[in-house]
From TrEMBL:
Species per Swiss-Prot/TrEMBL record: Roseateles albus
UniProt xrefs under InterPro entries: DUF6352
Top-level taxon of the source organism: Bacteria
Pfam families in UniProt: DUF6352 (PF19879)
Protein name: DUF6352 family protein
């Protein structure tokens, strides 16, 4: 065995995120991203496909051939790779590459994978999401939106600290805890430091709607957070869905839904979808599950859909969050459906 990590392992996707942020890919007439040889070389540089000292001659030859011509077919060399894991990793990569090339753009390939899954490891879909999300935020100077966009492709850990709901990158949090470090919470005061540090020392994002301040004598007031990460996330979701729908829309963070004509909802993760389904059907929801709800959002599409569509975001029982951006595309009303 070569010891190579399987393609499904959760390695950081910073290279694809940066590729999008730096706008390294050309656009087609629709403005969608076209893969190029350098994009495929990013995949070949990942640990799942990188050469090791014990790589066999066929693997070395295949890797070098793909680096020189990433779109070429090398079936003979692939079949000759001695290590089973290494051979499987290249098979996954080539299947994915061929599907993206057939689709023509990253966005079209993403929609195709949502419609007809190729049974590929999640890493490939996440790589597409990271690149597209990076492009959406290219040139954006709002640190809160850029940090919020990472939720589209990186698992988060939630914690309640002094009445504030903080969202930290799970892998970044694990590495900082291992080094006995503390995560900083992104704020207007340290936004410049966010740009300097990047993902090397990630910031937590405050997902609190408002903070309650006690004034004494039984008095208190609620302070709405001007720089809540929820507002930034709403904008990111707006950009994401708008990328595929190609029509005006607005997404706003809400604390509650007070709508007797509530007709459509979408959960942005597994837990919120189940929770919203139960609330919609008037099934009982206990306090523990309600406490998992992070936020609600209202999606409005003027001139395209007459009623608000409500979105939910929730943490799992272990306080992790795996946002699924594909849910916004898979679960639209039939009149707006992108995927048949």
């Amino acid at each position: 065995m070569t010891g190579q990590a399987p393609v499904g392992s959760l390695e950081p996707l910073q290279e694809f995120w940066l590729c999008g942020l730096q706008s390294k890919l050309a656009l087609n007439e629709r403005g969608w991203l076209q893969p190029n040889d350098d994009f495929w070389r990013l995949w070949l540089a990942r640990p799942e496909l990188a050469l090791l000292e014990e790589s066999c001659p066929a693997e070395i030859a295949l890797h070098q051939a793909l680096l020189e011509r990433p779109s070429s077919s090398q079936s003979a060399l692939l079949a000759a790779i001695a290590d089973e894991d290494a051979r499987a990793n290249y098979q996954f990569f080539l299947r994915f590459r061929d599907d993206v090339l057939a689709a023509g753009t990253l966005e079209a390939a993403y929609l195709r994978l949502m419609r007809q899954p190729l049974m590929l490891p999640p890493l490939f879909v996440e790589g597409l999401v990271a690149t597209i999300a990076g492009h959406l935020l290219a040139g954006n100077v709002d640190a809160f939106q850029v940090r919020a966009a990472e939720l589209l492709f990186r698992t988060q850990r939630l914690s309640l600290t002094e009445g504030r709901l903080l969202c930290a990158d799970l892998e970044g949090l694990d590495s900082r805890q291992a080094a006995a470090g503390l995560l900083d919470v992104l704020s207007p005061d340290n936004a410049a430091e966010f740009w300097r540090r990047g993902s090397a020392q990630p910031f937590a994002l405050d997902l609190t709607h408002e903070v309650s301040n006690a004034l004494g004598h039984g008095m208190s007031f609620n302070l709405t957070l001007k720089h809540s990460g929820l507002k930034a996330l709403a904008k990111v979701l707006e950009l994401w869905l708008g990328r595929f729908l190609g029509r005006p829309l607005k997404i706003t963070a809400l604390q509650k839904v007070d709508d007797s004509a509530w007709s459509w909802h979408i959960g942005l993760d597994v837990d919120s979808m189940r929770l919203l389904n139960d609330l919609y059907e008037d099934r009982p929801v206990d306090a523990a599950r309600m406490a998992q709800l992070i936020s609600l959002f209202k999606l409005e599409l003027p001139g395209s859909y007459p009623k608000p569509i409500y979105l939910g975001l929730a943490m799992s029982s272990d306080k992790s969050l795996k946002l699924k951006p594909q849910n916004l595309l898979l679960n639209l009303p039939p009149e707006l459906a992108l995927l048949g």
